[in-house]
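Quick one before lunch.
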Amino acid sequence: MKTWLGIDIGGTSIKAGRVAADGSVLERKSIPTPRSLEEFRAALPALAASAGGDLAEGAGIGCKGLLDPESSRVLVSPGPVVYLEGHQLSVLAGLRCPVTADNDARAALAGEVAWGAARGLRNALMFTLGTGVGGGILSDGRIVRGATGVAGHLGHVTIDPDGGPCICGNRGCLETVFSARAIEAQAWSAGHRSLATVLRGQPSCADVFAAADAGDAVAAYIVDRATFHLAAAIAGLMLALDPEAVILGGNIAAAGARFWTALDEGIRDRTHVMLPRRVPLVRAAVDDGVMGAAALAATR
Ligand SMILES: [Zn+2]
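Model of the zinc ion complex:
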């Protein structure tokens, strides 16, 4: 039976598993993300071996930042695994099988193409709505990389030309308005300004959505304003790329009907003339970093 090793390198943990052709995960292992290159070099081969890496046809590695898929070299990865920049993940993992590595959001889309909501589609947009906003573009059957691997950073589409600074160096990006961090910052600010709201202290993004669902007017304002901007960003990208479906993954995609309905209506309002057909707005079916990483190798 052919299997592929998937390794998902995140800021807090590294997860690995061997995935079969039908998408079932045979072994799953996880370790806290090492703090240094030396620790990483020691820990990754052991993790890959414990997940059955020697039995895999190939391996896929998903990691934050920009990577060269052929060499598996990390080009740019600001944040907790910055020490990987310039290093080849296939070498660090001690893997002898072919290795494909890519940005984690693109890996997430690969997972949906192989086993999830994008199966059978040739054109789709994917957004991972979490701490930040990741993205992926499937166009004419290919996951778009662009000239230098930057393509698909949908969280960094400018949504407000006068907006505040973003970690990417641009200003007014989608993720400065719609992301768990942006929504939490708004909620903290509302509580700090003593507005009449149940939001106090440092509420989580899920707390803000729950308060909005329960009728808290301030929480509803924060969620609705963020959703309005997400709808505008998605509408613009839909008109640029004409997808068969828009797929939402990440923690915020677990939000309830209030969010999904408002988002769908916001998108329809902006796209109904050019895209009179209803483009399905669907939740990611795989939404699993290990399966996404394995899909990079399985669909190589
Ligand atoms: Zn940005």
